[in-house]
Amino acid sequence: MRVCKAGSGPSSSSPQVIRKQGAAPPWEVLVAQVLPGASPLCAAAWSGARGWKTSEDRGIYQALSRAAETACHPLGKRPCKMQAFRIWDINQKTFYLRNNQLIAGYLQGSNTKLEEKLDVVPIEPHAVFLGIHGAKLCLACVKSGDETKLQLEAVNITDLSKHKDQDKRFTFILSDSGPTTSFESAACPGWFLCTALEADRPVSLTNTPQEAMTVTKFYFQKD
Fold first, then answer.
1. 178-210 burial by CB neighbour count: b if 16+ within 10 A, else e?
2. How far apart are CA 57 and CA 20, in angstroms?
3. pLDDT at residue 118 above 80?
4. Are the beta carbons of 86 and 223 closer than 8 angstroms?
5. Which residues pair with 181 in a beta bridge?
6. Per the domain annotation, does 39 fall within a domain?
7. Belongs to which family (predicted)?
């Protein structure tokens, strides 16, 4: 997940983390990935480390994550600040608003100023809240009967909490595949953010990400 930028390394006051022989990846790498304004311990948990070889490695990482949770925001504050991101699908369609609905299309000339960026608040490793930049609208996955749909809700992204069950519909799981990212709903597992092949169609959700008529892979770049 490319949400928080890595720093140059731990400060002189950094907690000492001893590398366990054979551990993957090295603990030094975790500590070196320092988030802006966060402690190295917080950065370690938010580095999104992968490739643990043993259950012991995973257990140590989970313990490190819990410790960082307390170290990062002991008063219940978020570990990372909200950041603005650009998003466009692999067919180069960008997002814009039309009648309070999120649309994906090709913006050219003076219309490029209509492009909507996303506000992103990380809440777990690889999990985020997503909102329309500056508009106080958040993306939510809502299920009603047999229908699952994406909708924009008029809430402030900074008021959301990962501890509230009712806020789970705003949570998306990020999965990176090379340079692209997919967004899966945490409230409705198996449903992914998608665009249609045709331009100027609503951004929606699909539970058939391999279907040829939808696009679920996006370029996601810090603005």
1. eeebbbbbbbbeebbbbbbeeeeeebbbbeebe
2. 9
3. yes
4. yes
5. 176, 218
6. no
7. Belongs to the IL-1 family.
The CATH number for 121's domain is: 2.80.10.50
Q: Which residues, 6+ apart, have CB-to-CB distance to 16 below 8 Å?
A: none
| Segment holding 127, helix H or strand E | strand 127-132
User: In total, how many domains does the chain have?
Assistant: 1
Q: Which structure tokens are listed for 140?
A: 């939510």
- Is 16 part of a structural domain of the chain? no
Out of 18-32, 85-99, 157-171, which region has the weakest mean confidence (pLDDT)?
A: 18-32
Average the pLDDT over 68-82 and give the result.
49
Beta bridge pairs of residue 221? 86
Domain encompassing residue 141? 86-222
* Residue 90 in domain: yes
Calculate the average pLDDT of the chain.
Answer: 77
Weakest mean pLDDT among 1-5, 130-134, 145-149, 199-203: 1-5
Q: How far is CA 150 from CA 1, 130, 136, in A?
A: 22, 12, 16
Across the strands, what pairs with 196? 214
Tokens of 169: 């519909």
> Average of pLDDT values for 105-129?
96
Residue for token pair 């043993």:
54
CA distances from 213 to 139, 180, 206, 216, 218 (A): 22, 18, 10, 10, 15
Please report whether residue 210 resides in a domain.
yes
